[in-house]
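Lecture 7, part 2: worked example. A protein chain together with cytidine-5'-monophosphate.
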Amino acid sequence: MAETRIVTIDGPAGVGKSTMAKQLARELEIPYLDTGAMFRAVAWKLGQDSWEWNESRLERALAGFEFALSGTGEDSVLSLDDTPIGDEIRTEQVGMWASNVATLPVVRTFLKKAQQSLGERFSLVAEGRDMGTVIFPDAPHKFFLDASVKERARRRFLQLKEAGRPADEAELREQIARRDHQDRNRAVAPLRPADDAVVIDTTSLNKAQVFEALLKGVRDA
Ligand code: C5P
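Predicted complex, written out as structure tokens:
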């Protein structure tokens, strides 16, 4: 089997990873893998408080879960147990549930295997928190996007408004800061740039400028 090509994009909540990953995947004509959606879907399917279950109960539940990926660019479709993962996971509440299950080694081990197995089958633009550090440490192209909490909350606010789901910006700021803190400080696979990642502070950049920086990174390396 031909070797796959992996581009990793890591960074905190609301920094614009998904938008950029989709666009880059379209340019490269490969699928994009939203690993946050995998954590969200697992949290959603297991249900509230599942992060308090004991390890063997979690392990049994996870053993039945199967992810699949099809399509390329923004038409990439990630499914869990033959059902495409939909918008029901796209709330800040499910984001916090995801962050809670993401602290558990048993969940991370399960998803690591699922993510690496997709990376063996497909070239990918893989986005998340630990793509460059833990899941695809040998990826030839690694990026870490960052931006201030205030700017990320503003972007999320506009995104939700556009989707017809208005939210309170101050509340979003508080939720994003809380999730960041948990993601950066957990014991397993904390959010941080890989030593060989290109770090891009997007606070004062527009989408076109961020995309240009990513494309340049992929073409130069
Ligand atoms: O990126 P998104 O906001 O959808 O991720 C939801 C949560 O899933 C994050 O806050 C993080 O705790 C967790 N996550 C992770 N590792 C990844 C992707 C997401 O821990 N690779």
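DSSP finds nine helices and eight strands in the chain. The first strand starts at residue 6 and ends at 10. Keep this in mind for problem set question 3.
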